[in-house]
């Protein structure tokens, strides 16, 4: 069932996600990460704890094909750029994916300028007001980029506040 996540020959894991914050700039009723329902637990996780968790995993398995860094909205974390930079410098991580809901323009584009990094933009229709600006800036800075349309179906229905 999970063959596409683990390489049986080497024991390495193909893909892993790490959540560095529960703070989000949206409040989606059907959030796949349940952030509107757990957001009062904590806002941001300590980056040194996240690094240690990844290092412990890497020491156990050897390497990681792809690490996805996400939240909530990871650009709300004051140390997101430090963690992304650390991950791209870690030789045992082959690819780093940074997932954002496209609501916040990042403060540190340099952290995203790495050939093994992919900036993954989620598009939530009319609420994704910064998507075009993010795409334009990422292309200008030659940042690897992909985006997914999340505005179809019920995924992007916002909870009334």
- Radius of gyration in whole Å, from Cα? 16 Å
The percent range for strand residues is 15-25%
What is the mean predicted local confidence, pLDDT?
A: 81
Quickly give the structural class: alpha/beta
Strand tally: 5
**Residue share in helix:** 10-25%
What is the strand arrangement across the widest sheet? Answer: 1-2-3-4-5
Morphology: globular
| Cα separation of the termini | 39 Å
Topology pattern, helix = H, strand = E: EHHEHEEHE
Description:
It is a single chain. The chain is α/β, with parallel strands linked by helices and 161 residues long. The chain is 24% helix and 21% strand. The chain is built from four helices and five strands, in the order E-H-H-E-H-E-E-H-E. It has helices at 35-38, 47-61, 80-89, 131-140; strands spanning 13-19, 64-70, 93-100, 117-123, 145-149. Strand 4, helix 4 (131-140) and strand 5 form a beta-alpha-beta unit. Helix 2 runs parallel beside helix 3. The longest helix is centred in the middle third of the chain and has 15 residues, at 47-61.
Which properties best describe this structure?
single chain; 161 residues; alpha/beta; five-stranded parallel β-sheet; 4 helices; 24% helix; 21% strand; disordered C terminus
Q: Can you give me a brief rundown of this structure?
A:
The protein is of the alpha/beta class. It has helices at residues 35-38, 47-61, 80-89, 131-140; strands at 13-19, 64-70, 93-100, 117-123, 145-149. Helix 4 links the parallel strand 4 and strand 5 (145-149).
């Amino acid at each position: 069932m999970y063959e596409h996540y683990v390489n049986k020959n080497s024991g390495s894991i193909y893909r892993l996600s790490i959540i560095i914050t529960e703070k989000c700039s949206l409040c989606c009723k059907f959030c796949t990460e349940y952030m509107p329902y757990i957001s009062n637990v904590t806002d941001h996780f300590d980056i040194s704890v996240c690094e240690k968790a990844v290092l412990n995993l890497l020491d156990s398995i050897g390497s990681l094909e792809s690490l996805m860094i996400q939240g909530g909205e990871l650009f709300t974390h004051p140390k997101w750029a430090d963690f992304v930079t650390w991950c791209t410098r870690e030789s045992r991580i082959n690819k780093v994916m940074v997932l954002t809901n496209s609501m916040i323009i990042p403060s540190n584009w340099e952290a995203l300028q790495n050939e093994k990094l992919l900036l993954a933009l989620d598009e939530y229709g009319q609420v994704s007001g910064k998507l075009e600006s993010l795409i334009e800036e990422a292309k200008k800075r030659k940042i690897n980029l992909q985006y997914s349309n999340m505005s179809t179906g019920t995924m992007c229905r916002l909870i009334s506040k």
